[in-house]
Specification:
The chain is α/β, with parallel strands linked by helices and 233 residues long. The chain contains 6 helices and 9 strands. The strands form 3 sheets. A 5-stranded mixed beta sheet has the order 2-4-5-7-6, covered by helices on one side.
Length: 233
Amino acid sequence: HLLTLINEVLDLSRIEAGRIPLELQPVALSGIVGECLAVVKPLADQRGVFLRDETGRAPGLTAVADPGRLKQVLLNLLSNAIKYNKPDGLVLIRGASEEGMVLLSVTDSGVGIPGDKQNLVFEPFQRLAAEHTGVEGTGIGLAIAKRLVGMMSGTIEMKSTPGLGSCFTVRLPAAEGSVEGEAPQASRAEASVPEGGGSVLYIEDEPSNLTLVRHVLGRRPGVTLLAAGRGSE
């Protein structure tokens, strides 16, 4: 518990100092959700909480995000939804798209958050009296989650009803095309690739941009990517 507290304090200080590097790229939500659910399932089983993944109802959702930091945000939301739930409770994960944004929501059937404390949810070191419940926590996780989502050009919001539960929704920019599921309709660039293939020379000194372009061109058969950090190369 103390190690977690130290790590989160350091994380928060790095974020506020602008020292958290991000590698933004297209991220398939179904893959991220699957990995995170596998991590928190033992905790859910221990506490008798049922996990239901409904992101499959909106297949192919792809956000522009840093995969590692998005996992960090989702793991925080899922672990909170489990820890502050009721026995035989439910945690529901849903995905949707809306006006160029991808939405990922985590809803629980727990105790909810009192109305007079909801404005403190994303403030550091605010546990909203949970320190008296015996549930471990640092009160920093949601503050970090909000800042990380903001750094990825997204937003996070909460709706809660005391006695019925809470819902946290993350909104992130949608990536063009689809990482999985049905292939999108061929674009002009894809249609114009000659049968014998072709090469693209990309000059870029920002690693995250190079990662994104490499991923996009990797879905175009016959295209070879050549990368250079400077024009002189």
